[in-house]
Design brief:
With 268 residues, the protein is α/β, with parallel strands linked by helices. Helix content is 38%, strand content 16%. The strands form two sheets. A seven-stranded mixed sheet has the order 2-1-4-5-6-3-9, sandwiched between helices. Helix 8 packs across helix 9, helix 8 crosses helix 10 and helix 9 packs across helix 10.
Length: 268
């Protein structure tokens, strides 16, 4: 700590032992995460198609083949972030490493690229819950990193981002008024083109959708069983799970797991 305060560079990370790290924007350094959150893909229910796409792309990447940067978008609590973490749990033994980058750190991506070694390890830069307002500095930096900058990531680096917004930026009704009709074709206005230009630089888009009641209850029962609860097939369990979702105003995998924790914690 004293070395850092005096301006000395942080010790390099031993990537053979470290599976995850966090990019610290203020100090321009990587901090190892000693206990990364791990979740197995088998616990992520009702998103089989999404799992197949993410797994196939990640497997290609880990095996040294070409793969795409990924944008995971859609309803909150449906497993976007958990699915990325599940890839680390599955492929860490084959050299996959995960680096968490928040929005503040995006402006300094070229410096992060310089710190990543040309090594057998494969690095996914993970940007969770990403969205931008107007003129935020991270927006052009991420755009350039994905496609268009002279300072590009190495072949052993990909970017996976999650967002509730398909285009990562707010959409305004006024932008539709800028559209032009030329020769029967619709040409978006400049504001719309700019908003779309970032998301389209991700080679793979994976969408997540709101869950229906049956999927929600199945996930709640799955987690209740995993957490050691016995009474997860009763009418009381179903009724309590539905009441929980109504109180939260959502049916999602996250809400189902939270209910299961509460149910199991009560010793039921």
């Amino acid at each position: 700590l004293l070395d850092r305060l005096e301006g000395a560079p942080a010790a390099p990370i031993d990537w053979k032992k470290t599976h995850a790290a966090r990019w610290m924007a203020e100090s321009r350094s990587l901090r190892p995460i000693s206990q990364p959150h791990r979740i197995e893909a088998k616990h992520l229910l009702s998103i089989d198609e999404q799992k197949q796409k993410i797994d196939a792309n990640t497997r290609q990447f880990v095996e040294g083949r070409t793969a795409n940067n990924v944008l995971l978008t859609g309803a909150r609590g449906t497993g976007k972030s958990s699915l990325v973490k599940a890839m680390l749990a599955k492929y860490a033994g084959k050299g996959l490493r995960l680096i968490e980058v928040d929005k503040a750190g995006l402006a300094h991506l070229p410096e992060l690229f310089d710190l990543l070694p040309q090594s057998p390890q494969r690095f996914i830069l993970f940007c969770d819950d990403l969205s931008f307002g107007s003129d935020e500095p991270g927006y052009p930096a991420l755009k350039a990193a994905l496609d268009g900058s002279l300072s590009a990531p190495a072949d052993n680096v990909l970017i996976y981002a999650t967002s509730n917004r398909r285009h990562l930026m707010p959409e305004y009704m006024a932008e539709n008024l800028e559209a032009q009709h030329i020769g029967g074709e619709v040409h978006p206005g400049e504001a719309t083109e700019e908003r779309i230009s970032l998301s389209e630089r991700f080679g793979l888009w994976v969408s997540f959708y709101p869950m229906d009641q049956d999927d929600y209850l199945a996930i709640a029962a799955h987690w209740a069983k995993e957490l050691g609860a016995k009474d997860f097939q009763s009418e009381g369990f179903t009724r309590a799970a539905l009441q929980w979702s109504l109180a939260r105003g959502a049916r999602s995998g996250r809400v189902a797991q939270q209910f299961a924790k509460d149910w199991a914690g009560q010793g039921k």
